[in-house]
Design goal:
Layout lengths: L10 E4 L6 H31 L6 H18 L2 H8 L5 E3 H34 L4 H4 L2 H27 L8 E2 L6 H6 L6 H34 L4 H29 L8 H25 L2 H20 L1
Parallel strand pairs: 1-3
Antiparallel strand pairs: 1-2
Helix pairs in contact: 1-2, 1-3, 1-10, 1-11, 2-4, 2-10, 4-6, 4-8, 4-9, 6-8, 8-9, 9-10
Length: about 325
C-alpha cells in the first residue's frame, strides 16, 4: 500500500513489525499482560501512599507522582499499540499521533526531572536529617513537582510541533510502533541537522542536567552513609536509596541512548525494542522495586490487607 493513498491521507501508518506477524502476536500477549500488571502495581502504590498515614511523607508524595506518571505514560500509547498489534489496521490519525508524541515527550521530561527531585529528597533525608521536615515542607514539595511538570510540558511544546511540521513529501509510514520522535525525524525528506541539534540541546537540560544532579546528590549521600556507625542504619539508607538508584538506571539508560542520538544513527529495530522497554518494562518494574525493597511499603500493604480482613469479619 502506497503511503500517499487517499484512504490513509492525513493518517500515519505505524509499521512496527508488520513484516513479522508471528512476532507481533507474541508481543501483543506479552504487552497486554505487562500493561495490566503495570496498572495494578502503580495503582496499588498510589492507593497505599494515600491511604496509610505512615506514608504521608515527602518521599511517598513524590513516589505517588512517579506512579501517576508511569500510569499516564503507558496509557498514552499502549492501548493504541495493542490495537495495532491485534489487527491489520496499523493507522493512527494525525491528531492521535500529535497527542501521543506530545504526551510521550512531556511525561518523559517530567519523569527525568521528578527523579532528580526525588534524589534531592534523599539527599536532605540522609545528609540533613534533623532539618528534613523543615526543608522538605509541603510548599517546597508542591513547588518542585510543579516545576518538573512545567519544564516537561514546555519541552514537549517546543519539540512536538517542530517534529510534526517536518516535511515528509507525502510519506506517512512510520517505521515504529508509536509516534516517537526519532522515528518521525527519520521520515523527513529534508536535512534534519537543525532539529536534531535543538533536540540535543533540550536533552542536555531535561535529561543530562538532572542526571548530573542525581549523581552529585548520591555522591554526598554515599559520603554521609559511610560515616554512619550503625550497620543497621547504613543498611536502611542503602535499601531506600538503592530503590531510587535502580529506577534511575533503568529509566536513564534507555532515554540517553534513544534521545541523545535522535536521527538515523541508531538501528531501527534496536530503537523499537528500546522504546518497548522504556514504555512497558520500566513502569512495570518501578512499583515492584519500591515494594520489594521497601519495608515501609510492605508494612503499609500488610496493614491495609489486615485492616480490610478484620473489617469483613466484623461485618
Amino acid at each position: 500500500m502506497d503511503g500517499t493513498n487517499d484512504s490513509t491521507q492525513g493518517n500515519f501508518i505505524l509499521l512496527g513489525f508488520s513484516d513479522r506477524p508471528h512476532l507481533e502476536r507474541i508481543l501483543f500477549v506479552v504487552i497486554l499482560i505487562a500493561y495490566l500488571l503495570t496498572l495494578m502495581g502503580n495503582t496499588t502504590i498510589i492507593l497505599v501512599s494515600r491511604l496509610d498515614p505512615h506514608l504521608h511523607t515527602p518521599m511517598y508524595f513524590f513516589l505517588t507522582h512517579l506512579s501517576f506518571l508511569d500510569l499516564s505514560f503507558t496509557t498514552s500509547s499502549i492501548p493504541q499499540l495493542l490495537y495495532n498489534l491485534n489487527g491489520h489496521d496499523k493507522t493512527i490519525s494525525y491528531t492521535g499521533c500529535a497527542i501521543q508524541l506530545f504526551l510521550f515527550l512531556g511525561l518523559g521530561g517530567v519523569e527525568c526531572l521528578l527523579l532528580a527531585v526525588m534524589a534531592y529528597d534523599r539527599f536532605v533525608a540522609v545528609c540533613k536529617p534533623l532539618h528534613y521536615l523543615v526543608i522538605m515542607n509541603p510548599h517546597l514539595c508542591m513547588g518542585l513537582v510543579s516545576l518538573a511538570w512545567g519544564c516537561g510540558v514546555a519541552n514537549s511544546l517546543i519539540m512536538s510541533p517542530m517534529t510534526l511540521w517536518l516535511p515528509r513529501c507525502g510519506y506517512w509510514k512510520v517505521d515504529h510502533f508509536l509516534c516517537e520522535m526519532p522515528a518521525l525525524i527519520r521520515m523527513a525528506c529534508v536535512n534534519t541537522a537543525a532539529i536534531e541539534g535543538i533536540a540535543f540541546i533540550l536533552a542536555v537540560g531535561i535529561v543530562l542536567s538532572p542526571l548530573v544532579f542525581i549523581l552529585i546528590s548520591y555522591g554526598y549521600i554515599v559520603r554521609a552513609v559511610l560515616s554512619i556507625q550503625s550497620s543497621s542504619g547504613r543498611h536502611k539508607v542503602f535499601n531506600t536509596c538503592g530503590s531510587h538508584l535502580t529506577v534511575v538506571s533503568l529509566f536513564y539508560g534507555n532515554i540517553i541512548y534513544m534521545y541523545m542520538q535522535p536521527g538515523t544513527s541508531s538501528s531501527k529495530d534496536q530503537g523499537k525494542f528500546l522504546t518497548l522497554f522504556y514504555n512497558i518494562v520500566t513502569p512495570l518494574l518501578n512499583p515492584m522495586i519500591y515494594t520489594f525493597r521497601n519495608k515501609e511499603v510492605k508494612g503499609a500493604l500488610r496493614r491495609l490487607v489486615l485492616g480490610n480482613l478484620s473489617l469483613r469479619k466484623r461485618l
